[in-house]
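User: Quick sanity check before I run a bigger batch. Here is a single chain. Can you write out its predicted 3D structure?
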Amino acid sequence: MIFEEVAADFFYTGGKSHGRFIRIWIDHIAHEFPNDKYARRFVDVVNDTRAPFVKARGYDWEFHIDETSFGLWSIQGHFPPTQGSADEARWMAETKESPRTHD
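Assistant: Done. Predicted structure follows.
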């Protein structure tokens, strides 16, 4: 997570300054959502987990999720392993990246 503090009068809603507003963006890159059902469930989880920290404290918020295509990212120069593969299990066990041994 990266937190970027901005002045309280930085955000506007309907042309008026909104001092109790939080803008969240999420880069989702590990795996692609297989369909809208899973994407909606993820959005619901994000809303539910943010509520105690945002809504309960009287803030308004919005967020969006950027989903990067699986083929368009790498870590330390290595393409990530496919989901459920032996390479993925190795990455998780070692908690570090390494070259793929399978496609």
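The mean pLDDT is 89.

User: Great, the batch can go ahead then.
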